[in-house]
Amino acid sequence: MITLTVDPQVLARLQAAFPKPPSCAQRALDKYVVALTAQLNQSVYQGRDPQQLKIQSYSVSTSKLANKGGQIGTSKTRVHSWLERNGVPLIRVVQKGSNLTGRLSDVVLTPLAQAEDVWQRFDLDLSTATTDQQVEQALMPDRAQAKAVFDIIYPTFDSKWTGQDIAQRYDVLKVDVPSLKAYLYWLRTGTSAMTKGAVSRASAQARSILAVASILSGKYLQPIKDSAFGRRYYAGTSVQNVNKNLRNAILGSCWEYDIRSSVVAWKMGSASTFLQVNGRKESVREAFPNTLLYLEDRTDFLQTVRMYVFEERSERNAATHMKMLKQAFTAIAFGARTNTKGWRTEDGSWVNPALVSVIRNTEARERFMADVGVQGFIKEQRALDNYFMEQVSAHSPDLLRLPILQTSSGKASKSKVVAYLYQHSETEVMNVLRATVAQWGRVPLASVHDAIFFKQRLGVDRVHEAQYQMQQATGNPYWKLSATQHHRWERHSLDEATELAAHRQRIAAETEKAVGYQSIYF
Fold first, then answer.
1. Nearest Cα to 54, choosing from 122, 106, 103, 125?
2. Residues 6+ apart with CB under 8 A from 96
3. Cα–Cα distance measured from residue 231 to residue 425, given in angstroms and rounded to the nearest whole number
4. What pTM does this model have?
């Protein structure tokens, strides 16, 4: 958590310009500093990228800062603007944000504002801790720190809200606090595979959740932010946008059930109708052999593609390659551009196609695009995408006029339309899943788009029943669930390690003494 110290000359300049009433300058500056500090901490909690960490910059909405930073004087001058115009700004913009891309501005603090990260003491305390009690004291924020974090994350929260009021605004997440603390301890003392930026981001997220959980007796509030595309998202840090290890730490031991290759399965639900509408006599298997192979035996399909795409293959990079290929095929299913050239946006920034971002090596990407199986998959997906656009144009033309489904030039975007249709269908089928398991008294711990988490295993029979209900309700026989068991994070006890070391030392001393022992009778 960051606190700011402002050079006294800033207040002096403000007081000289606005001497009356006597306290107005102090109040105005305090309000501005609070607004700026909140945005800096929000940037930290969301996680800064490696470049931001290198130059000590933060993601800030300068327009929100200007609005929330307050006004001063009879002319109601914005404090943010006044500080800039009069040569005493607290921040300097290094990269301006854009409404087109949704990117915030990157800013650095000027010499007039000094940031102190109170979490630095946290790292020091952890690194010097020698007992379990010291670790626990270092991991848990004190009440004042936790409350400060809570107020930054939930600036509009009202303690008078009823349970119904809270339910309308937030999804309540139960946090396995010991598991989360064990993960945070590992993150700060035991990880070497993650980049510095990834560690910083995960640490900030874990700390903020832990702080809120300490205030709310083990619970964390996820501000609901429903999308017009049909999905439920959350503002700020949530179970959706943290890395998988952190998610597992938050939820503890549980079972995850996700829809297998969900977007591809959804599209294949229309394959039979597509053939009928177009008067084609082939079977679904004959018309969509690559897509069906991907659905029925994705691992084998991807391993075959991997053989032809990546020249340097080993057990060490197998998981990385498979993850990369899954992302590539998912991007294709969502209509990602297959050309290898990027383009310049209206704000001047450069954008790469999704596949360029997924498979960064040029030669590997070219081999991927030339693969027979990949080409067949792309052809089949494009046929279904065109079919969806034709159906929308014929039966729901108003949908194509929605601004959220159009390009910057005002033309309907095929990929956006497909994503819109899929995400609404995904929400529908996940609601069927939730309703089905609710009949068995099962309440989800959390939901992440096409995945749902439960404390207890559903069992094979119930999984089959849930799949059947999902298929029947939507008329799509390709919905299938995959189950994954997750285990809570555990921290090794320093006290036990110390005692074990002492025990071994005692045994060694006794052994040495026994070796040197000589009987008086011999």
1. 106
2. 105
3. 10
4. 0.80
The Cα–Cα gap between 69 and 81 comes to 10
Give the ranges where 93-195 is alpha helix by DSSP (H): 119-128, 132-139, 143-153, 163-169, 177-189
Q: How far apart are CA 50 and CA 195, in angstroms?
A: 8
- 85: region left, alpha or beta (phi > 0 left; psi from -120 to 50 alpha): alpha
- Give Cα separations from 175 to 171, 209, 210, 214, 241 (angstroms): 13, 8, 8, 10, 16
Beta carbons of 212 and 150 less than 8 angstroms apart: yes
Is residue 111 within 8 A of residue 130, CB to CB? The reply is no
Q: Round to whole Å and give the CA distance between 104 and 83.
A: 20
Strand partners, 230: none
Give the tens place of pLDDT for each residue, 414-470.
999 999 999 999 999 999 999 999 999 999 999 999 999 999 999 999 999 999 999
435 C-beta neighbours (distance < 10 Å), count = 12
Angle at CA of residue 178, ends 173 and 179, nearest 5°: 70
The residue type of 316 is R
The amino acid that residue 18 corresponds to is F
Alpha-carbon distance of 88 to 90, in angstroms, equals 7
More confident residue, 193 or 10: 10
First to last CA, the chain: 72
Q: One-letter amino acid identity for 406? A: Q
- Give the span between the Cα atoms of 489 and 365, in whole angstroms: 37
